[in-house]
Amino acid sequence: MTDGVEEVVMRRNKKVLLKKYVIGFVEESMPRFIAYVGFYEICSPKKGEYVFISAASGVVRQFVGQFAKLMGCCIVGTAVSNEKIKLLKTKFGFDDAFN
């Protein structure tokens, strides 16, 4: 689903039973919104501060880590497997991660 409105139609024997419109933007951007509000509005970080993120491989927490990196913070996270730790460091730009 992409940003914008998508039409969903349920049919039976070519007869339309239900037609509705789904707003994809809300569904896809909710984790980003939650991360943004939690990080910028509640935490109010400053450049150079350390940010610790528990269970950092979760979708909302990945965004928090990326926001922290953009702010110039040092990011440390935890994850449950070595694969996820590698992902945090290589793909999401965490400075350090541990199990």
Could you name the key traits of this structure?
alpha/beta, 3 helices, elongated, Rossmann fold, 99 residues, two-stranded antiparallel sheet
How is this structure best described in words?
This protein has a three-stranded parallel β-sheet with strand order 3-4-5, with helices on one face. A two-stranded antiparallel sheet has the order 1-2. The chain has one domain: Rossmann fold (3-Layer(aba) Sandwich). The protein has 99 residues and is of the alpha/beta class. A hairpin with a 2-residue loop joins β1 and β2. The mean pLDDT is 81. It has three helices and five strands; from the N terminus they run ββαβαβαβ. It is elongated, with a radius of gyration of 19 Å. Helix content is 42%, strand content 29%.
Assign the CATH superfamily: NAD(P)-binding Rossmann-like Domain
Number of domains: 1
CATH architecture: 3-Layer(aba) Sandwich
Low-confidence stretches: none
Helix percent band: 40-55%
State the total count of DSSP E strands: 5
InterPro entries: MDR_fam, NAD(P)-bd_dom_sf
Protein name: Alcohol dehydrogenase-like C-terminal domain-containing protein
Organism: Dioscorea zingiberensis
GO molecular function, one term: 2-alkenal reductase [NAD(P)H] activity
Concise overview:
It comes from Dioscorea zingiberensis. By secondary structure, this protein is α/β, with parallel strands linked by helices.
